[in-house]
Design a protein that fits this description.
Elements (H helix, E strand, L loop, with lengths): L2 E4 L6 H14 L3 E4 L9 H9 L5 E3 L3 H10 L10 H13 L2 H8 L4 E4 L7 E4 L16 H7 L7 E4 L5 E6 L2 E6 L17 H15 L5
Parallel strand pairs: 1-2, 2-3, 5-6, 6-8
Antiparallel strand pairs: 4-5, 7-8
Length: 214
């Protein structure tokens, strides 16, 4: 079974289109949307694209999705965030309809993929018990072990930090899927191959964002 894990799209429609074009070649059996879909310049169109996919899709919640719902509900004062993030979150919440809000509010924290004749895989946004805690390749094994204590699955897919990496902790394998819409690049991230293609991509992003007040 082929599964595509798309994490942290952050309302970046051109990047989402580029990723989905690659999936047309790969043809996954399932797409897991790993949270933080809409906290960015084109939130509504991002949701509409994901809702219209022909491939089966499983959504989970990210911290950004939860924060947008709380802001929509007038509870932003309960959130600890910088002024710039609060402004972005408020703007995104203003773009959403009630049905968008209701969809986001019911998203699960985790998703377990049950595979016949193979081990189950757990998908979460940050760690299995919450959508906020951060760990990196440099975080100590002792701290990471506390984050995954009690996890039954031996393979976990996460995101949140926008950097792809793999960690092993005993029999546990942790894969960070990185970010579709806001990647923090390192040596292993796929790059746009030529300067011309890079310019075309940036111009496409700019054109998409101009009509927005983001």
């Amino acid at each position: 079974m082929r599964v595509a894990a798309l994490y942290d799209i952050h309302g970046n429609v051109p990047a989402l289109h580029a990723t989905l074009a690659e999936l047309e070649v790969v043809k996954p059996d399932l797409i897991v949307i790993g949270g933080d879909m809409i906290s960015g310049p084109i939130p509504v169109q991002t949701l509409e694209i994901l809702f219209q996919l022909d491939t089966p899709v499983q959504f989970i919640r990210g911290n950004g999705d939860r924060e947008v719902v709380l802001t929509f509900d007038g509870e932003a004062q309960a959130l600890e965030m910088s002024d710039s993030v609060r402004e972005i979150t408020s703007w995104v919440a203003e773009q959403l309809s009630r049905s968008h809000r209701d969809f986001l509010s019911q998203l699960p924290l985790t998703y377990t993929l049950t595979r016949e004749n193979d081990e189950d895989v757990l998908f979460c946004h940050a760690i299995p018990t919450n959508d906020e805690d951060i760990f990196t390749p440099l975080t100590s094994d002792a701290i990471v072990a506390t984050y995954f204590e009690g996890t039954q699955q031996r393979t976990v897919i996460c995101g949140h930090t926008h950097v792809q990496f793999e960690r092993r902790l005993g029999e546990l394998r942790i894969l960070n899927a990185g970010s579709v819409g806001m990647p923090f690049a390192d040596e292993n991230v796929r790059k746009i191959p030529t300067a011309q293609e890079a310019m075309e991509f940036l111009e496409a992003v700019a054109r998409k964002n101009r009509p927005s007040t983001y």
